Records
---
Amino acid sequence: MLNDLLTQLAAKGPFSYVQFGGNDGVLADPLWPFLRDGGDRHVAAGHVFEPNPVYFERLVRNLGKFAQITCHNCAIGSEGGPAEQALYFIHPDDVTTHNLPRWTMGLCSFYDDKNALGGVGSPQAAALYETIKPFIRKVDVPCRSLAEALEEIGVSGCDLLLSDAEGHDWEILRQWDVERFGRPAIIHAEIVCLNEAERSDMLAWFDTHRYHASIEGQNVTAQRID
């Protein structure tokens, strides 16, 4: 569904996007196939946030060839929250050395109780938890509120908003002030790691702000209703 919407968006002209939780820009990234296959020519500007310094280095390396895309080593925290916060993750060196599933490189989160870092979310995550537990690391990362982060880089809105924050996605979306930053044409966010109340609040947000939202697998894709 997302690829079809991206094609429709690109047909209207160059678009801008903001992405939170960019990881390395390739692994399980919903936008990577589009960029890889030449879709970057339809991107006017992209801003990708990745707080983990290990994966940020890889992100810059992978997306550096796209001049219109800028990477930011910063996390979106809570409004009024701390300027620095602990992030839990699996280091890529441990994935290689200890033969862990490649997808565990996508596990970077403020939470160790809402996703596979705590054995939560699926039978697969629960079964794998004891295997990855010895390799869970922690790093302190800089945080900004969403408004502060966008103001710092001079972004007042976008056509496409993406979030893959392993349980922090509703906290990010709830800070998106449509009066200030507009209504993105498409929003694609991870929903699988949210609790029941957060899922309900996220879907209600889409309804309130006139979006048609569809859940597919671990994510929700919402299209603006004009």
---
Amino acid sequence: MENGDGDGKIALRHWVDLPPVWLLLFLLLARIQAVRVPVGAIDTPLTDLLAGLLIGGGLLLMAVAVMQMRQNRTTIIPHRHADFLVTNGVFGRSRNPIYLADTLILTGFIVHWSAWPSLILVPLFVWLITDRFILQEEERLRADFGARWEDWAARTRRWL
């Protein structure tokens, strides 16, 4: 993929370094822990309900957020500039509902697998997503939308 001037590496990084890839990596780590180092599996209707609510809620939140972005004809790709600043609906509650959905899904699978030590991955995932994606996205949105972004950011939390 390298073409001599580094553009190939940049393009590859932009398609591999994506939140769903990081989510899959964290899910894999949690699953490995659950299988290789199991600790006190708790398989009750309550844990099943909690896991289902977290995973299902995450998938629903993600679907709604993606639909809102598509309706407003703006990108869902983190490394691109947005064409429109979506501030209503689920974006009125969280500036990053898709990343919040990813976090809910990760937490849900950890609960489902009784991978309790892997709960440490949740704050690590939040930190990584914030550091690798959200901070850069916020800079682009600030530059592209100025006062409108500042107003939205002042009244809407980054995560929840």
---
Amino acid sequence: MLLLDCTTEPAGLTHLLEAGTEVNVVADAFVQSPAHLAAHGGHAFFLLWQLQTGANLNQQDWFGEAPIHKAAKVGSLECLALLVASHASIDLRNKDGQTAEDLALALGFLDCAQFLATAKHIQNRKTTAQSCHSQSGNEENLPSNSATRQKRACASNRSINKKRMRSNGMAFTPQ
């Protein structure tokens, strides 16, 4: 494919543009897009260009792998950081049920596996915080008992955080 022959020089991008390459076009029998190839080659510059031109971050190939899997398989921390920052799905699984983190760990790219684990942890914390925040304003619209329990847990955490300790060990709530 033409993408593999390009250098990081602007002339390489010009050749791609002149050839009329589309960002989500399937490049081979394995259903790999130019974003897959850029991530698999560890070419963050070309991956960024693909993402800026509308490449599908989560497009899966024949093996069920997205660009995040390809970057993890070659240990490209730069490509992984770019994909995570662009909101690629960290939990996406290939046909063997493996996430990008699983692949990085299995192939010995411990820094990449740690990065993905940390990114997933941060993403989960943000989701939990958003869930607590979104439920705090609409008590009458809660659909189930589990949602009510979650709201109460969030509310009780907030009220505990508002309490202050006096020097004598007694708690008081500011007015």
